[in-house]
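Collaborator request, handled under Task 6.
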Amino acid sequence: MGFLSNISPMRRLNSILLIVAAAFLFWMLKEIGWADVGHQFLKIGYYWPLLLTPYCLMNYLGAVSWDCLLLTRESRPSLTRLFFLRLAGESLNQLTPTASMGGEPFKAFRLQAGGVPWEEAAASVVIQKGIGVMSLVLYIFLGLALTPFLLPGAGAQLGFLSLGGLLLGGLALAFMIVQRQNPCASGIRLLEKFGLCPAKLKAKEAECVRLDAWLAQFYREHPGRGLLAFLLFFLSWLVHGVEVYLFFWLIGHPITWVMALCLDALAVLFAALGFMIPASAGVQDGGTILLSLGFNLGAALGVTFSIVRRLREAFWLSLGLLVVGRENSRTACPEAS
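Structure tokens returned to the collaborator:
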């Protein structure tokens, strides 16, 4: 416990949860049997690069959605740059113990460094975060609505999952509503009331007020852009489900599009509920295995798919971290860019 005593309570909690989740995942793999998992994994063969494409398209749609939220034409970055900034930001969200928020400041800062006004860069990141979670909630409830047609007797289990979806949806809705209520200025006043406002934050009050104004202006004057960004993000989640369909097709165990969507939507619900753990380790994997059993696909297939998805994540997360390193080197040596 000497090591854990030297880190912050939040990091300590994340470390403990990560250790517990990893131990649980290892136990499940041992119980199922490594030979069965390996046999299913080898069926993919040389076609594994196909499983990298859905997330690539998903991230591209996310970049197009982000582009809809940027209004200043003169300094708007290219879609290619938005694609890689999103990739980098999502890597930080997944790999840092910040409840999936660690990459958002990075994206805003890099936009600002590219010439986008600070308040516009920050507002676009805040708005898209809310849009992303709301579209995820819609995707999850689409899966929940379709699942009874595949599993008529799963009412009790779906009720529990629906509660998780409602909790996530409530948090997302609250986040969207708060964005319209001058959140930065109100937060500073609340901290001042209790004597907890840091001097550095107080010094940036004027910038925070401008951010509030930009958020309010966007929702008031550009609802169409917000709706288009939301629809694009929802479409990106549907593309995410293609990965499930491809996997089962490649291993010679094809499933319907509806089952693939249901499996993916419920799997991302498990991952979202494990947001406190970096990469939702253990929670996402355990949920995938339970869902595979629930849909009568077998535990071995569930474990194999979970491993394949983790390998896909590792590829794109590694690429994202390379982008982070490149962006940081640009900051350190601006003349090199």
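The cover message to the collaborator said: "The CA atoms of residues 215 and 221 lie 10 Å apart. Residues 49-234+316-325 form one domain. Please let us know whether this matches your experimental observations."
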